[in-house]
Specification:
Shape: globular
Structural class: alpha/beta
Distance between the termini: 12 Å
Radius of gyration: 26 Å
Largest sheet: 8 strands, mixed
Strand content: 5-15%
Number of helices: 20
């Protein structure tokens, strides 16, 4: 799918099939600007952002520098913001992040790099911020400003309430912003309360602005910024008044925009089977009628007259979608062939399997199929220090009780406890601690899988290399990671595989794992190995009803067994919340609610009533 502009938005909005394609596009814009200015012996002044969104952009610019000789020696940069107080050597410093992610890999001159200083005295903040603005003016102003967008709609650290004319200043961070950063700082209590940021007015003075957003979790706020009225509650909406701003999105981040979600309201559309299904289900839910009860008036009163005219009458459209949705119901997810089949479940973290599709795993095992589970990463960074401390203490006491290598146990215990006592907030774990936390997650995964009926001999702990940084930030996928996946597919020869298709994972692990699996699938299919690929959703949300292609019914006892499997992941109990912490229900509660809500949606559409449903979408090249 090529890029396309979304019609009738208040900010020009360009959508790409993937975030990688979007990042490449922005990198080419920057390359063109730099080469043009270099040829005229002029500097290029860039405004730069941090966070997960621009990582792909910076990697592509590094590639252009190394492979095509893109020269950054004349580039001057100004970063948007920095936490306060914040030492430049701190692992959470944006200066350190920019150096490690970008500046250390290109030939920018150190004196041309400007990042707000988180070490200044608070009493000097006003003067310092005025000087930062003066530096931007002396450089000739910003040619191209790169932005991301926060969940509250902020750009930079311009939190809700920031005015259109605000300048570079010290700000107090919104609680939502602090909660969103909590996982990076290993607890919201460690997130600074203040930051230095360019103001909205400062940003709007850039000659050109590109604001990027990727992933489903950004879709609601993107819609507010580009479709609703300008408001200081969403500082990104002020970009509507800028003469040259472009929103760059992947398909997921564009998902809530009206022309994509309900394109028929804008005029004539090509009524594909997919769009017909989406429209009829939307209508059924909007008017609160079952699919078979929809009337001509329902279509006419909700801007679907064209659909009615081309594919009606109403009862025919309702029956068509009803039959399609009935076809998604599947009580035998591996089919009814007499011979048992092998199913391979890829779980990015050690608990995604039972949280997201535990009921289907239970059903597959119950029906005699052989289920293998591949845990792709260790998940060790999601274990709290106090859990590791407790396990170290237990092992030392256990070994002492049984007389097993008592001295070695005490030595390790003292080493780990000494590190934990001196560990600073947000500091990366020691090797000892990482190994202990990895072991905690592995043993929980074994217990959870066994509760779902999968024996330890059918579990595979891949420990993919990209995850082994010991920090929230992850490296790109390693080529050997894909080789490992290919070898597993060739060895197990599954009839079907299950992949986490939830791309809103805050740290990108699901996204990276899925892309690695898809690359591996392409390779083995070229060698004529064929199997079904089904996508399940992660812990955060379910597929939209019009997207679901397979729905596996769960009985009350199935759901109870699934919850028991989730309970085995005890170290994750305190982390049972969406990134940002706004959903404090435990994983098992959200899994139950999600599965029961999917069944409720089917019931509202007039389909058979079930206790709970797990939804899947088939992946096709």
């Amino acid at each position: 799918m090529s890029s396309h502009y979304v019609p009738q938005t208040k900010i020009p909005t360009l959508v790409f099939a993937t975030s990688n394609q979007a990042s490449r596009h922005v990198a080419l814009m920057i390359e063109s600007l730099i080469r043009q200015n270099n040829s005229a012996s002029r500097p290029t002044v860039l405004g730069l952002a941090t966070g997960s969104t621009p990582v792909g952009l910076y990697r592509e610019l590094i590639r252009l520098h190394k492979e095509t000789g893109l020269d950054f020696s004349r580039v001057i940069s100004f970063n948007l913001d920095e936490y306060f107080p914040m030492s430049p050597e701190d692992t959470h410093s944006y200066r350190l992040w920019m150096n490690e992610t970008f500046f250390n890999h290109i030939n920018m001159q150190p004196e041309n790099i400007h990042i707000p200083d988180g070490t200044i005295a608070a009493t000097d903040a006003d003067d310092y911020c005025a000087r930062y603005e003066q530096l931007i003016r002396r450089a000739g102003g910003i040619d191209l400003q790169i932005l991301g967008i926060g969940r509250s709609g902020h750009i930079g650290f311009n939190e809700p309430g920031s005015t259109r004319h605000s300048r570079t200043r010290m700000v107090t961070l919104d609680p939502v912003t602090r909660r969103d950063a909590a996982s990076d700082f290993f607890g919201v209590e460690n997130v600074p309360h203040q930051a230095l940021t360019m103001g909205v007015g400062t940003i709007l003075e850039a000659r050109k602005i590109v604001i990027m957003a990727f992933g489903e979790h950004k879709a609601p706020v993107v819609r507010k910024a580009v479709e609703e009225e300008m408001t200081d509650a969403v500082s990104a909406s002020f970009l509507q008044k800028h003469a040259d701003t472009t929103f760059i999105l992947d398909q997921s981040a564009a998902g809530h925009l009206t022309p994509i979600r309900r394109p028929w309201v804008l005029g004539s559309v090509n009524w594909t089977p997919t769009l017909i299904r989406r429209a009829v289900i939307w209508l059924s839910r909007t008017v609160n009628k079952g699919l078979l009860k929809l009337s001509e008036e329902d279509f006419q009163e909700h801007e679907l007259y064209e659909l009615l005219r081309e594919h009606g009458p109403a009862h025919k459209l309702g029956r068509r979608v009803f039959d399609e949705m009935m076809g998604t119901l599947c009580t035998s997810p591996a089919g009814t062939a007499p011979e048992p089949k092998t199913a391979l479940v890829f779980s990015p973290h050690p608990d995604d399997d039972v949280i997201s599709m535990g009921g289907t795993i239970i059903r597959l095992v119950e029906q005699g199929h052989k289920v293998h589970i591949a845990y792709m990463t260790s998940g060790n960074i999601a274990v709290f220090d106090h859990d590791a401390w407790r396990f170290v203490d237990f092992v030392a006491a256990f070994n002492s009780l049984l007389g097993l290598d008592k001295e070695k146990s005490i030595e390790i215990k003292e080493r780990v406890e000494s590190f934990l006592k001196s560990k600073k907030p947000g500091q990366s774990d020691s090797e000892d601690l990482l190994h202990i936390k990895k072991l905690i997650r592995e043993t929980e995964a074994r217990a959870g899988a066994l509760a779902a009926g999968v024996p330890p001999g059918q579990l595979h702990f891949m420990d993919l290399r990209f995850y082994r940084t010991g920090t929230i930030a992850k490296a790109p996928i390693h080529p050997q990671d894909i080789v490992d996946i290919v070898e597993m597919l060739q060895k197990l020869k599954p009839a079907q595989i299950y992949v986490a298709g939830e791309m809103s994972d805050p740290h990108g692990t699901h996204r990276v794992c899925a892309n690695a699996i898809f690359d591996a699938v392409r390779q083995v299919r070229q060698k004529s190995q064929q199997f079904e690929v089904w996508l399940y959703r992660g812990a955060w949300e379910e597929w939209e009803p019009h997207e679901i292609e397979r729905a596996v019914p769960l009985s009350p006892s199935d759901l109870e067994q699934k919850k028991n499997a989730i309970f085995r992941h005890q170290s994750q109990k305190d982390r049972a919340m969406f990134p940002g912490g706004q959903d404090k229900r435990e994983f098992w509660q959200r899994a139950e609610d999600r599965n029961r809500n999917t069944a409720k949606t089917y019931d509202q559409l007039g389909l058979p009533e079930f206790f709970a449903l797990e939804g899947f979408v088939q992946w096709r090249e």
